[in-house]
C-alpha cells in the first residue's frame, strides 16, 4: 500500500509493521508496555463503554482496554495497514467484543453507532495539521454527546529548551510534522472543534501527555 504522507512515520509498513511491538519493547528497554498500561488506566473506561481505537496498530492497546469492559462494552479498531490488521486479529481474536475495520481515519467516515470514547495513541502528531483537523472532525462526528476524546501523544514544549539528550533522539526519530505539533495549543484547537472539560496527565518529564476532551 502506497504511503499517502511519505514524510510521516506513523504510516508503518514492512518489517517495522510486522515487528512493531517487539521493536518498541527493545527500544524502550521494556518500559513501553508499562507506560501504555498506565495511560490506559487513566482513561476511566466504564464496563459498557463503546470505544474507537484510531490507528489501532497491532491491537496491543485494544487488548489492554478490553480488560475494563464487560460483555456489553466493545472496541472497534481502525487502521489501514494490512500487516497491522493481521496482527490485530491474531492478538485480539479471542475477544468477541473487539473488532477491526480497514479504514482511513483522515477521510470523512460515519460509523453505524456513536461511541463513548475515542482513543488515539501517537498517531495525531504524524500528519500535516490540516489532516489532523479532518481526523478530529471524524472523531467528533462519531462520538456520542458527552463522549470522551483521549489523545496520548507529545505534549506542548519548546524543542530549543529541551535537554540535548532528549532533543537529539526526538529530532532523529520523529517526522517533520511532530515539530509543529508540539508548538500548538491543543486545548484551544479542540475547543474550536466543539470539545471541552479537559483533563490532562503528564508523563516522561512532561514531554508526553494524555489529553482527554469531552464532546460538548
Describe the fold and architecture:
- 36% of the residues lie in helices and 24% in strands.
- The chain contains nine helices and seven strands; from the N terminus they run H-H-H-E-H-E-H-E-E-H-E-H-H-H-E-E.
- It has one domain (14-215): Rossmann fold, CATH 3.40.50.150.
- The chain has a seven-stranded mixed beta sheet, with helices on both faces.
- The longest helix has 14 residues, at 129-142.
- It is of the alpha/beta class.
How many DSSP H or I helices? 9
Which fold name is given in CATH as the topology? Rossmann fold
> Which range does the strand content fall in?
15-25%
- Describe the global form: globular
Number of strands: 7
Q: Determine the N-to-C terminus distance.
A: 37 Å
Tell me the radius of gyration: 16 Å
CATH C-level class is Alpha Beta
Number of individual domains: 1
Please tag this protein with its features:
alpha/beta; Rossmann fold; seven-stranded mixed β-sheet
Amino acid at each position: 500500500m502506497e504511503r499517502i504522507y511519505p514524510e510521516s512515520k506513523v504510516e508503518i509498513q514492512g518489517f517495522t509493521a510486522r515487528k512493531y511491538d517487539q521493536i518498541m519493547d527493545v527500544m524502550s528497554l521494556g518500559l513501553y508496555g508499562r507506560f501504555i498500561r498506565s495511560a490506559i488506566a487513566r482513561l476511566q473506561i466504564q464496563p459498557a463503554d463503546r470505544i474507537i481505537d484510531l490507528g489501532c496498530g497491532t491491537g496491543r492497546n485494544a487488548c489492554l482496554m478490553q480488560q475494563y469492559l464487560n460483555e456489553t462494552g466493545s472496541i472497534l479498531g481502525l487502521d489501514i495497514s494490512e500487516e497491522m490488521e493481521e496482527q490485530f486479529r491474531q492478538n485480539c481474536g479471542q475477544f468477541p467484543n473487539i473488532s477491526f475495520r480497514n479504514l482511513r481515519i483522515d477521510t470523512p467516515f460515519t460509523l453505524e453507532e456513536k461511541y463513548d470514547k475515542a482513543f488515539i495513541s501517537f498517531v495525531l502528531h504524524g500528519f500535516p495539521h490540516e489532516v489532523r483537523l479532518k481526523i478530529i472532525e471524524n472523531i467528533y462526528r462519531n462520538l456520542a454527546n458527552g463522549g470522551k476524546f483521549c489523545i496520548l501523544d507529545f505534549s506542548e514544549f519548546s524543542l530549543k529548551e529541551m535537554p540535548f539528550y532528549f532533543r537529539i533522539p526526538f529530532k532523529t526519530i520523529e517526522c517533520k510534522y511532530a515539530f509543529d505539533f508540539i508548538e500548538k495549543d491543543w486545548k484551544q484547537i479542540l475547543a474550536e472543534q466543539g470539545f471541552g472539560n479537559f483533563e490532562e496527565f503528564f508523563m516522561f518529564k512532561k514531554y508526553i501527555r494524555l489529553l482527554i476532551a469531552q464532546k460538548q
